[in-house]
Write a structure and sequence with these properties.
single chain, mainly alpha, MetI-like fold, 2 domains, two-stranded antiparallel sheet, 75% helix, flat
Length: 350
Amino acid sequence: MKAGKKDYLYKIICIVTIAAGIAAIVSALILDFSGSKSNIRGPMLLIGMTALIFGIFRLPCKKHRQLINIVFLFPLVFAFTVTVIIPFMLGIFYSLTDWNGIKFTQFLGLKNYIDMFSSMDYVYSFVITVIFTVCNMLLVNLLAFMLALLCTSKVRGRNFYRAAYFVPNLIGGIVLGYVWQFIFNKVFIILIPGSLSMLADANLALVAILMVSTWQYAGYIMMIYVTGIQSVPKDILEASNVDGANGFQTLRKIKVPMIANTFTVCIFLTLVNSFKQFDLNFAITNGAPSRILNGKAIQATEFLALNIYKTAISKNEYALGQTKGLVFFIILAIISLTQVTIRKKKEVEL
């Protein structure tokens, strides 16, 4: 009986500790949001969090394991909520106002969305981003797969090739962009006398970004393909060799089907990264040169990410920039999920 009373008292103490922790946290938040200059807000929040975690951790109950899991997951969930979920919800709200980056004065409804889709430069940026994404996805995966086949063959120095092809991915996009800008504007012109820089032509500038992006990213995707190819069982390859299959037949009938999941991962990564391209676009051309479309001058190589950045930062139209960013996220999510779903079905078929 004494033991039962002791356990009951211990449980009451834990519950009181949890309640006190919650009260301290709520009080600290109220002081913070009310603009109080009191110095006890921080210590109160820290003490409240400590009391809450300790109380839950020591609370005796049948579902103690679940409570412990919640305690350990709480920091990650809290950080994700504060840095991702809450800003995303606020972004949806700000896209419906005239937010200037600090405050808003009126509710505009869908005006920002109407202005966005009626803007010629945004529509053009969307189209050119899709074109770049498709071309870059195909070129990067094709080149990366060919390099992976080379680096997994019996060619001498294949480990050196792996390292050499991967090195461009280690260079930051901004630095790499400025280096290649110098190459296009200075080196190529010297090597080819009388020629103009590719960056001065609206069509060739897009090709230039495509070249650099493929060169930079192919080595990274190659390493994923190398891992996939090396995971193919050796006995199956030996059996195909005994049956008289040549290299192309082995590749088409055995290797490609058995690394279908690798293709899914690589296509997903290249699709997302190509659609989000910003650093190379910013450093190499910054959207230039201009192109005349329906009598209006627009930036010929301004991808969606750069267009959103310039709208918010350069033009100080934060609400419109937030609207474009929200639509950008939705489009990217739809494209990514659709691609993964289709590739998963293909994996089953293979």
